[in-house]
Write a structure and sequence with these properties.
Blueprint (H helix, E strand, L loop, with lengths): L2 E5 L13 E4 H4 L4 H12 L7 E6 L5 H14 L4 E9 L2 H10 L4 E5 L11 E8 L7 H11 L4 E5 L11 E5 L2 E6 L3 H7 L5 H8 L6 E4 L6 H11 L7 E2 L20 H7 L7 E5 L6 E5 L2 E2 L2 H11 L13 E4 L5 H9 L3 E4 L4 H8 L5 E4 L3 E4 L7 H15 L3 H12 L1 E11 L2 H14 L7 E2 L2 E8 L2 E2 L6 E2 L4 E5 L3 E7 L7 E11 L9 H4 L1 H10 L12 E2 L1
Parallel strand pairs: 3-4, 3-5, 4-9, 10-11, 10-12, 15-16, 15-17
Antiparallel strand pairs: 1-7, 2-6, 5-6, 8-9, 12-13, 13-14, 17-18, 19-26, 19-27, 20-21, 21-24, 22-23, 24-25, 25-26
The chain binds alpha-D-glucose-1-phosphate-6-vanadate (VG1) and cobalt (II) ion.
Amino acid sequence: MPVLTVSTQPFPDQKPGTAGLRKPVSVFQQPHYLENFLQAIFDTCPELQGGALVVGGDGRYFNREAIGILLRLAAANGVTKTVVGRNGLLSTPAASLLIPQVKAKGGFILTASHNPGGINGDFGVKFNIATGGQASESLTNRIYERSKTLDRYLVLDDTTDIDLSRIGQQVLGPMQIDIVDPVTNYADTLEPLFDFAAIRTLLETPGFRMRFDALHAATGPYAIELFENRLGASHDSVAHAEPLPDFGGGHPDPNPHDAKDLVNLFMQADAPDFGAASDGDGDRNMILGRGVVVSPGDSLAVLTANAHLIPGYRSGLLGVARSMPTSHAVDRVARQLGIPCYETPTGWRFFCNLLEAGKITLCGEESFGTSSNHAREKDGLWAVLFWLNLLAARGQSVQEILTDHWQEFGRDYFQREDYFIAENATAQDLMQNLEARLPRLPGTRVQGIQIESADSFSYRDPVDGSESHNQGLRIITGDGGRIVFRLSGTGTRGATLRVYLERYEPDSARHATPAGTMLGSLSEAAREIARLPQVGLSRPDSVT
Ligand code: VG1
Ligand code: CO
């Protein structure tokens, strides 16, 4: 086999963040940059030799070129078969499901998820293991260590053009390449989990309208197949369905800040009955009803409380998990159901061990991500189907389901405020100074709010005992509230400080009050505690 060994020099900045390595496209386009990172993975995971790989991405700019490079490296590193989504497309959950289904040793998902796309946007590489789950923190660290000493990579000396648009088998040197339809297998896997007949009846009810916004990212073709082709939704139900390399210039993040148009539509009196949006790579979801956006923590809690109504979950739940900054709403439901509830650091990889060990059935994050043990990734369309099934089974609107839920469990008001900080060093200093002050905070009052305790969140994985530290600073207040501070690990320029605000309200007479009103003084307190105005941060850049 004609393999070239190319000499290279290590890049010092290939440390993956919350979900894979993300950098501006221009960084990935530097000679050897992508090759180095991929080779660090092949060197760290010798099990990939002699096995199959799954490859696909969210369709963003540089996706096709990156797949070309990846295929030649995979062949040179002894991969015998690669399964690729047609046109290089696979949503994150679809790729994750495909990996164990085709018995692959791993998969590469080429995505920077919600980060902007296009030539001036970001690109990213995520490596998932044979279970379909994200690489663990320890594997990620080993890959990073390898990237720092790498001095060569292997590439097949064969420039055969692979036609990514043609379904079927092709070859590249000794490696077989299977181009597969990215949608069918995914839709087939989801369908048996839900009552499609009941959802179809709902969607065909005269006057019922749904709108799914794919934000010109990966989920468009999946949503059309599921909602329009298989479930009979009308042909205008999926908006912005065509995946574009720059996502149409938008920011493919399904939250009230970035999907403002959709939210505005649902605040109108004649809004559709049900709405949803997904992110760049299709693993997140925002659920809307007429006049209401479902907070992600509430969504996880509602799914948990109602899982017995859904065919795939009728036999009960093993347990649930949420990331630490996610609201405590699901904890209350788990307590009532008598099932365990785990609290993990931010990032889906921390759920993977719990899912694999059979400790949890559902899990979710405050960043509009939910999923179950059917996959090892979050799954946006899964959540949308779950909600549709729920609407059908309960015969209620989104608002009615939420109101009933709050009536029973109380309402966990939640909001995330993001502050953009141009200089990384400023952000690091801010967090360090705040951490140093934490021990002095308990017992003090800020903006009239009593502080009970404060700490830095650490996690011990209950499956493999591994420990993760510095996973966010927590402040617990006397009125059933909480403030969490952490720095984003997915951005590529400057830094983003995320401030998570939460407050529990048991009294249903107050459940109609907007979150912003209920959390206003906590937001002020957060700014004062972290001394944000001193570094010019007097207002958040986005509130979701
Ligand atoms: C963000 C979210 C986190 C999510 C991660 C990856 O991370 O907060 O909950 O798991 O994105 O999701 P951070 O470090 O920026 O807060 V995705 O859909 O970008 O793969
Ligand atoms: Co995503």
